[in-house]
Amino acid sequence: MSTQSEDALPEDALPKDAPEETAPGPAGRRRRRTARRRRRPAVVLAGVLAAVAVGFTLWTAPTTREILLDSFTERPRTYAELFFTATPGFEGSTVVVPVAVTDHGEGSQGYRVRVTLESPSGQVLASSTTALKAHYGAPVPLVAKLQTNADVALVRVALVGHPQSLYFRFGKSQTPHG
């Protein structure tokens, strides 16, 4: 009497290209593992391609794109920009201060720019305030000309009612001695 059942065939009796379901024992398990390993990269690649396709579809939808941009990027707050357009200088005894103001969505109808000249001791020598009409996203230039016969050490420019201010120091910069 044989120990093998009549249904089971010995391992060496199976053809090499036999389907993995019919291969019993360790050789069949090895074949199934090898087949799974070969399928893994294809499954991963298919998953990546599907994710890219879904991501691209979502990114091209305007409302989804806005929501994603809002969640991943910091949107700038509204503000007014004050800056020198050139270096302040002298035309004889007149100090020329070229500045510009750009409205970045603040919604203000106008701005007031105050230019002040100071002496080396900090005394105010001259001051002028000028109104500007705001233009969203476009710089509005202003050239302030202040007359003085005294020694000017510092020009201060301020946006009245706003935290923005500038200064320009004439001559050598003072450094603390220590």
Per DSSP, what share of the residues sits in E-state strands of 2 or more residues? Answer: 25-35%
One letter per element, helices H and strands E, the order comes to: HHEEEEEEEE
Count of DSSP strands: 8
Q: Quick one: overall form?
A: elongated
Write a brief structural summary.
By secondary structure, this protein is an alpha+beta fold.
Question: What can you tell me about this protein's structure?
Answer:
The strands form 2 sheets. Strands 1, 2, 3 and 6 form a 4-stranded antiparallel β-sheet that branches. The chain has 178 residues and is an alpha+beta fold. A hairpin with a 5-residue loop joins strand 4 and strand 5 (124-133). The protein has 2 helices and 8 strands, in the order H-H-E-E-E-E-E-E-E-E.
